Amino acid sequence: MASPFDIEEIYPDDGEHSLRLPRRQAGNSPQGVAVTLLADYSVRTRAAFPSAAIVALLAESGVTTAGARTAISRLARRGVLEGSRQGRHSSYRLSRAAAANLSAGAQWILTSTAATTPWDRCWTTVAFSLPQDRGAQRRTLRGQLRWLGYAPLYDGLWISPYELTPPARELLAQLSAGRVTVFRGRQTALDTTSQRAPIEAWDIDAIKRHYEEFLRRWEPMLPLVRSGQVEGSAAVRARTEVMDTFRRFPTLDPQLPLELLPAGWLRQPARQLFAAVYDDLAEPAERHVRAVVARFTASGEPGIQAHTTADLVAGSRGDASPGEACRDGPTR
Q1: CATH code at 156?
Q2: What region holds the Transcriptional repressor PaaX-like central Cas2-like domain (predicted)?
């Protein structure tokens, strides 16, 4: 089974822009930290940050000055950041495409872990075939299918417990004619031990371990957060880390039906813990970000705002309407 962390992009292109957000790496890359940091305090306002302030904030997360400046430059070339200059001083903000992309991603992260969509025991099966010389296209397709909630039951055969969504339909429509077939239906049980259950396309034990690791990491910090003992740069670092970690869960566990999962599944406890840490750190983290920005600009930046989980969900388009035979799952 391919690791879900092999997905090339944090969020895929939306089909209308050439925007490419930074690739995932083992650990937190400078570009990834920069995107998370700017999104946490400006995804709705697109506030501009002096480049020196971005460098200073990234330094608090262990990014060198050279690494921070390289990350900013590369993000600007990718179209993730827009730059402006006044005299010798430069500032950057999220581009309109990046802000829309990240906002949609944040809504998906929070809504897809908030509740379980009713399931009617239907499975969507996507079978595709690409020539060996199209390895890059195959890797991209697999990564985007993973992001859309699919997993490989066999090589070239991907499944989801939910209806084919419009984004998935558009993705598959880009393949050459005769390269893809989509089915929707129920599994037929066989009286044999060689049968593989569709849920086995996901490594349930591994997903459970990721949830357990998340809870072990953040539960001890929650009392400190709630008592106001996490402030300043520590609040910003913790908030960035908890978002960067939690946002991977909807790909690991794309609203898998609870009836197929072990009792006491940890999706909701993890989401509740994430929301408590992220929201309770919003005020002290925002104060610190504002203080750092104020060191590099006389006027300050009124648009800096630490978004809460409620803010990020507010723009959600809601669940898709159910189909006639099978209910739709998450819209991505």
Answers
A1: 3.30.70
A2: 117-194
